Fold this protein.
Amino acid sequence: DIQMTQSPSSLSASVGDRVTLTCRASQGIGSRLAWYQQKPESAPKSLIYDASTLHSGVPSRFSGSGSGTDFTLTISSLQPEDFGTYYCQQSISYPITFGQGTRLEIK
Amino acid sequence: EVRLVESGGGLVQPGGSLRLSCEASGFTVSSKYMSWVRQAPGKGLEWVSIIWAGGITKYADSVKGRFTISRDNSKNTLDLQMNSLRVEDTGVYYCARDVDNTNFKEVWGQGTLVTVSP
């Protein structure tokens, strides 16, 4: 199974900050990576797929990059509504696996 | 509008069975990769199963042989038959539609809670 490791596990940042979250795969996955945002008591929301493609309706302050084993999710200017837990997920092989999540708190 | 609505969750004893259903609107379930993803209380996301548009199914090792994913084309639903339930199967179960045939989730349901407890 491909292990997905996210860092940091939690993060506190201020409105307007540039925030970068990291996801590392235990083996190369090309660009087969997605990012999801989940707020408490809510279903996940899809943000990015194929490492860098934004889903329709996702604000342009979100961006994704990387390939192979190392990936990043960047929020260029943090907004109050961006709090929540962010998960990465590899899609190249079964079982599909998620990272353990990065909890983002707004200061 | 594309929408997914899960139902069928509830409280069941260990060893029991439950059948979850996910009603889709705005698209045809049989034309897409459709998945179940679960989340134990206070934990992260865990992929459970997928059914391809062509009918091929895949399962996480933790549920293989106990869970069965299927579609009801007449009702346009995705189903998950869960047998031999264990305490560790407790959690919120989400159905999700994938982007084309990519294993990337693009649309999620609101989830249904399954509690396995004596």
User: Anything to note?
Assistant: Residues 36 and 53 of chain A are 12 Å apart (CA to CA). The mean pLDDT of chain A is 97.
